[in-house]
Amino acid sequence: MSRTSPDDSSEEKRVRILEAASEVCARHGVEGSRMDDVAAIARVSKGTLYNFFESKQDLFLASVIDSYETSLRLFEDPPERLAADPRVRLDGALRGMVRVLEAMATRMTVHYQAFGMVAGDAPARERLYGFLRDFFAARTGEIVEVIEDGKGQGVFDPAVEVAAVSDGIMALLSGFLYRATFDPQQATPDRLGACFDELVRRVLCPRQIAGSGGETDRV
Hints:
It is a single chain. The protein is mostly helical. It has two domains: 1-53, Arc Repressor Mutant, subunit A; 73-211, Tetracycline Repressor, domain 2 (Orthogonal Bundle). Helix content is 71%, strand content 0%. The chain is built from ten helices and no strands. It has helices at residues 10-32, 35-42, 46-52, 56-72, 86-104, 108-117, 122-153, 162-179, 189-204, 206-211. Helix 4 crosses helix 6 (108-117) and helix 8 packs antiparallel against helix 9 (189-204). The radius of gyration is 21 Å and the shape is elongated.
């Protein structure tokens, strides 16, 4: 963890606290975690901790949401987004999802505990669920847009059902994130990337495969 200094900014302290909360929860679970331990690892006083977060639930929920917000930076203006070829743009979006799995796999045990934590608290539940709905809706919208563009340009199968493919892509990401909680040796970024590649090759570009004797460039 980062060490404090006399001129630590409030944002730096907040980041350290969120990182410490994730570390403590991963070790002990939400129920077994203590705010004293979080404060010690973050190198702040317990009073400072409560200046940022009013309760343990507030802190751990913020930690979960922060990890998703951090992962959003993996999608910020990658060079592929500016490409004219929809296949290149799609590849960039899918590689971003692979990086999300890589960045978040070790945190997923904490994330699933958060669902139980907010089960009896409607405002907290909506805070978490609303954020996750927006996160997945934004990724889905990006995939839908690029597949529609690819169909229009004739590089993707014009008969493909866009909603089904985009939902399948998001289901793959969700499934790998879930499996990472109990089977991390199988839920790896490389395996997710291979699934994406095969889906694009077999579903979106089957004509290219047929016309190349079963081989085609990686999309």
